[in-house]
């Protein structure tokens, strides 16, 4: 019996998401090897100490690609997508993106799609902290009449965003809409909070026809965030509400974000399509 091929992945960033990926793979033991992690300059030694000698820690993309990963997983920022995505894809290496807010820029989106197609690579967009995108993808084959995505987080999760200057976040006592507008603007203005706004748009009606609301809600159960997806089409309607646990050290990000990334990577090895 032939030995099962193992998927080699490399991570960009070593924050809460990457740490959870290590934890999930350690527990579930899929045929996946994390061969390297790219971190900012000055963080190599500290990260290497945490990870031990089995995983290469580098501060240069060229060094990361020398590890010959099958998939490079962005778990860092929209800037990382802009800085390194095209290079990864041009090398024929699959690129998984979670900071999809970067693709609020249609020029970047088209550039990455073109690079992937030309090199035979795949641009992989996990669903992140939401469900129902399978239904949205199917419904867009017909006519989408309305798509609305609402991201709901406790007031303190919006600290460090434009909402902090427009609202007195600690004083909010009831659910309050802090942003209403386009996916591109949501992703640009709230780069750590609203990447899913762009994911929903790309999976559905597009950047110009998707409604986005960001909500500060002090009534959420402690340690959680939520979202709503509302779709109206000629094939029917979809209404989905999700309540999820936030990362313990990062209220801006849901635990489900990392889990969907892990699941998508595990699907690759289950389907043997790499």
Structure summary, number of beta strands: 12
Distance between the termini: 20 Å
Under CATH, the homologous superfamily of the largest domain reads: Dihydrodipicolinate Reductase, domain 2
Rg on CA atoms, Å: 19 Å
CATH class of the largest domain: Alpha Beta
CATH architecture of the largest domain: 2-Layer Sandwich
Quote the beta fraction: 25-35%
**Global morphology:** globular
Overall mean pLDDT stands at 95
The tally of structural domains comes to 2
* Annotation field: number of helices: 10
- SSE run: EHEHEHEHEHEHEHEHHEEEEH
Structural class designation: alpha/beta
Helix content: 25-40%
Order of strands, main sheet, comes to 3-2-1-4-5-6
Low-confidence spans: none
At the fold tier of CATH, the topology name of the largest domain is Dihydrodipicolinate Reductase, domain 2
User: Biggest sheet, in brief?
Assistant: 6 strands, parallel
Quick tags:
35% helix; 12 strands; six-stranded parallel beta sheet; Dihydrodipicolinate Reductase, domain 2; 274 residues; 2 domains; Rossmann fold; six-stranded mixed beta sheet; 10 helices; alpha/beta
Concise description?
The protein is of the alpha/beta class and 274 residues long.
Write the layout of secondary structure elements.
Blueprint: E1 7-12, H1 16-28, E2 32-38, H2 44-51, E3 56-58, H3 61-65, E4 71-74, H4 78-90, E5 94-97, H5 106-119, E6 123-124, H6 133-139, E7 144-153, H7 163-166, E8 176-181, H8 183-189, H9 195-203, E9 210-216, E10 224-233, E11 236-247, E12 250-254, H10 255-271
Parallel strand pairs: 1-2, 1-4, 2-3, 4-5, 5-6, 7-9
Antiparallel strand pairs: 7-10, 8-9, 10-11, 11-12
Helix pairs in contact: 1-10, 4-5, 8-9
């Amino acid at each position: 019996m032939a030995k099962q091929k193992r998927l080699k992945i490399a991570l960009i960033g070593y924050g809460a998401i990457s740490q959870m990926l290590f934890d999930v793979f350690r527990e579930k033991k899929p045929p996946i090897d994390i061969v390297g992690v790219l971190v900012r300059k000055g963080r190599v030694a500290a990260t290497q100490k945490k990870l031990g000698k089995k995983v290469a820690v580098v501060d240069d993309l060229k060094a990361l690609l020398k590890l010959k990963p099958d998939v490079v997983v962005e778990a860092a920022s929209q800037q990382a997508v802009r800085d390194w995505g095209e290079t990864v894809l041009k090398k024929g290496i699959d690129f998984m993106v979670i900071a999809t807010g970067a693709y609020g820029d249609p020029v970047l989106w088209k550039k990455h799609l073109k690079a992937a197609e030309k090199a035979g690579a795949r641009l992989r967009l996990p669903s992140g902290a939401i469900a129902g995108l399978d239904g949205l993808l199917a419904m867009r084959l017909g006519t989408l009449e309305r798509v609305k995505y609402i991201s709901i987080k406790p007031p303190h999760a919006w600290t460090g965003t434009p909402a902090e200057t427009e609202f007195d976040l600690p004083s909010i006592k009831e659910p309050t809409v802090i942003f209403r507008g386009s996916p591109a603007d949501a992703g640009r203005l709230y780069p750590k909070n609203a990447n899913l706004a762009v994911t929903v748009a790309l999976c559905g009606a597009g950047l110009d026809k998707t409604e986005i609301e960001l909500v500060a809600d002090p009534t959420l159960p402690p340690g959680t965030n939520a979202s709503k997806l509302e779709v109206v089409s000629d094939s029917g309607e979809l209404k989905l509400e999700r309540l999820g646990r936030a990362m313990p050290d990062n209220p801006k990000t849901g635990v489900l974000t990392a889990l969907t990334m892990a699941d998508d990577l595990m699907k690759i090895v289950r389907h043997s399509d790499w």
